[in-house]
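User: New here, please read:
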Amino acid sequence: MEARIAALEEERSFYVEQLQRARADFDNFRKRTNSERAREQRRTRVEILRALLPIYDGLQQALQSRDAAPESAILGAGATPAAEAPLREGVRMLAEKFGRVLELYSIDAIGEVGEPFDPSWHEAVIQEESSTVPEGHVLAVLETGYRCGEDLLRPARVKVAKAPGAGGAGHPNGLAGPATEDVSGADGRK
């Protein structure tokens, strides 16, 4: 009888150990699956946001150009200012709503004049001599960049200052050339 009890206890221990291993395997599988799902959702969100940024840029450009354009430029020569006012207001409202959506998803604009050039967040498009902005700093933002946390949605396309007469020496990317130089493709993005 004792031999039977010992055999049953050994069998029970075996099944308990198997159950514990199965639980651990399942728990690891669940964690791995959740992690992969979160990573895929993040990647998809970044792709969608990247696709929407040109639309936001268009709205911003429309708002900036509306002040520079004559009233009849939007609807044509025969349009009255009263006819264009609702369209202009609609564009303004859409841009504001879009901006709130970007804020909701913690999308931050990047690229400000005077900040140090950072190839992780900026794409250097042009270098230009400047006596007012320190060398290796952003002289002008040609296209605003955006990020979502640490994910770069789009780098800021910038003009980078270099010292007068420097000929490119000392630029963050080691670029050389005349006073104004096109440096497309030397961005060092993530």
Residues 2-68 form the longest helix (67 residues). Residues 108-182 form a domain with the Nucleotide Exchange Factor Grpe; Chain A, domain 2 fold (CATH 2.30.22.10).
